[in-house]
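quick one if you have a minute, typing this from the bus. theres a chain ive been looking at and ive put its sequence and its fold in token form underneath. please have a look and point out which stretches look like helix strand or loop to you. anything you notice is useful, everything is just below.

***
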Amino acid sequence: MKLIFSCLTVLLFLSASAQTDSNAVKFKTVVYSFGKIKQHVPASTEFSFTNNSNKAIIIETATAECGCTTPDYPKTPIMKGKTAAVKVTYNAENPGKFTKRVTVKFANIATPVILTIDGEVETSK
């Protein structure tokens, strides 16, 4: 019985700290629409965020779901209260509509942030 109670206590503590972690980073927006863009002309946008925690945070990884999208992110710690940005570039080689996601994983924060870009690549004439 003590073992079950101990396990439940640990699980409650972990879930409570995970909820607190989700408020540590606040993105201004997590979705950006390019609208219509020209083929063969890369399009970029920046997703800015603020460190709302009481300690420095580090981005472990920012991973795009395909090779046509490239994320660029700060490799140094972002101090508490400071703002930084993840730059996302789409290569715009294939004509047509697109929706692409970038998964941003912060150290010591359980839930990653999903950034989404979309738009339509128009064929060059």
User: Anything to note?
Assistant: The chain is about 15% helix and 45% strand.
